[in-house]
């Protein structure tokens, strides 16, 4: 509490009307508390792009075919994705990681091979992954964070590539937030009304069949429905908070991972900055359930971490504010409050 009061005093004494920089002041406070300092730094920003395939995709819950996952992963290595452009723009060190893509990418230059399996099992009929695979995925995320810290990273963003991953996201939202399943399901990569109804019916069957297995266990819920890339993201978020990194949260899928991470470790939320409210149905509801205030609302639904990357300049502005603005005393300006 003493540090928080000292930070607030520094913010209030910058040469501006008290509170006049709004969200930037809130962000500066959060970042100072994360780093436990009055002079926060954004060093070597890193972006983890985690790829995996989902067994539930076989049920026609996505308009995009499964092979798009590996094709896009290869495209990312050539610099041709949205995530590549934003990483270049904002100076992020991009790591492209295969956690469970249903294709052999082991010889593809530029992809880090952390493959656990060639996609998850179909959770319509049973758990998406075994307990061993679940623990492996969490560890992959943790190890990746350590690698970023070894490079000097103080701020991390995470993105995903996995056809069908809005389905587990919707189910986690439904089960963890007690929101009706129908309100948690959207178009994903472009389903029409008939496709959305089909998706709802498939996911409802899956939830109904899972009840005797999951029995309200948070780990079981995550493991039963999650993708390898999603569980790796959860592991990364939990470990990043433990190591006092700032965590930039992207869209619907990464917000679902943030939700799951907070179910396991509630204090992790203190390290999260929510980049944007996306265009996927249910994202706003999930953000509200987390009491999260996104920085942007640009109608994005690409994934890959692009919304988090777009929000980075605002975070940078907050840090520059507290480090570079003069105070009333030094500026010889009368403090009038």
Topology, please?
Layout: H1 2-12, H2 22-35, E1 46-52, H3 67-77, H4 82-90, E2 93-100, E3 111-113, H5 131-150, E4 155-161, H6 166-177, H7 181-184, H8 193-214, H9 218-225, H10 228-242, E5 246-249, H11 252-264, E6 272-274, H12 283-289, H13 306-324, H14 328-331
Parallel strand pairs: 1-2, 1-4, 2-3, 4-5, 5-6
What key phrases describe this protein's structure?
50% helix, 6 strands, 337 residues, globular, six-stranded parallel sheet, 9% strand, alpha/beta, 14 helices
Plain-language structure description:
This protein is an alpha/beta fold and 337 residues long. 50% of the residues lie in helices and 9% in strands. The protein contains 14 helices and 6 strands. A 6-stranded parallel sheet has the order 3-2-1-4-5-6, sandwiched between helices. Helix 11 (252-264) links the parallel strand 5 and strand 6 (272-274). The chain is globular and about 70 Å long. The model has no long low-confidence stretch (mean pLDDT 94).
Number of strands: 6
How many individual helices? 14
What overall form do the CA principal axes indicate? globular
Multimeric state: single chain
Mean pLDDT metric: 94
List SSEs in N-to-C order: HHEHHEEHEHHHHHEHEHHH
End-to-end distance, in Å?
23 Å
Helical residue percent? 40-55%
Structural class: alpha/beta
- Rounded to the nearest angstrom, the radius of gyration is 20 Å
Q: How can the largest sheet be summarized?
A: 6 strands, parallel
Q: β content, as a range? A: 5-15%
Which consecutive residue ranges, at least 5 long each, have pLDDT under 50?
A: none
Order the strands across the largest sheet as they lie in space.
Answer: 3-2-1-4-5-6
């Amino acid at each position: 509490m003493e540090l928080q009061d000292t930070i607030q005093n520094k913010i209030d004494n910058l040469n501006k009307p008290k509170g006049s920089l709004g969200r930037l002041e809130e962000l500066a406070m959060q970042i100072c508390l994360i780093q436990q300092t009055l002079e926060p730094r954004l060093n070597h920003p890193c972006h983890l792009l985690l790829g995996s395939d989902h067994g539930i995709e076989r049920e026609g819950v996505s308009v995009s075919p499964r092979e798009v996952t590996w094709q896009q992963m290869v495209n990312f290595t050539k610099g041709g994705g949205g995530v590549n452009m934003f990483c270049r723009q904002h100076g992020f060190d991009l790591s492209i990681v295969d956690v469970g893509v249903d294709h052999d990418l082991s010889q593809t230059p530029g992809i880090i091979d952390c493959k656990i399996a060639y996609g998850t099992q179909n959770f319509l009929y049973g758990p998406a992954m075994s307990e061993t695979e679940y623990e492996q995925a969490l560890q992959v995320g943790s190890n990746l964070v350590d690698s970023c810290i070894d490079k000097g990273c103080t701020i991390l963003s995470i993105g995903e590539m996995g056809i069908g991953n809005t389905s587990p996201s919707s189910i986690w939202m439904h089960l963890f937030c007690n929101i009706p399943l129908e309100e948690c399901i959207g178009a994903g990569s472009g389903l029409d009304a008939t496709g959305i109804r089909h998706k709802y019916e498939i996911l409802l069957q899956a939830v109904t069949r899972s009840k005797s297995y999951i029995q309200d266990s948070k780990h079981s819920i995550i493991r039963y429905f999650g993708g390898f890339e999603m569980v790796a993201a959860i592991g990364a978020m939990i470990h990043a908070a433990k190591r006092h990194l700032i965590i930039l949260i992207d869209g619907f899928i990464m917000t679902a991972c943030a939700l799951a991470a907070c179910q396991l470790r509630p204090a992790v939320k203190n390290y999260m900055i929510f980049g944007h409210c996306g265009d996927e149905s249910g994202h706003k509801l999930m953000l509200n359930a987390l009491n999260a205030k996104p920085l942007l609302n640009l109608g994005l639904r690409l994934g890959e971490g692009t919304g988090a990357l777009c929000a980075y300049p605002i975070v940078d502005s907050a840090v520059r504010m507290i480090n570079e603005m003069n105070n009333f005393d030094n500026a010889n300006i009368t403090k009038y409050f």
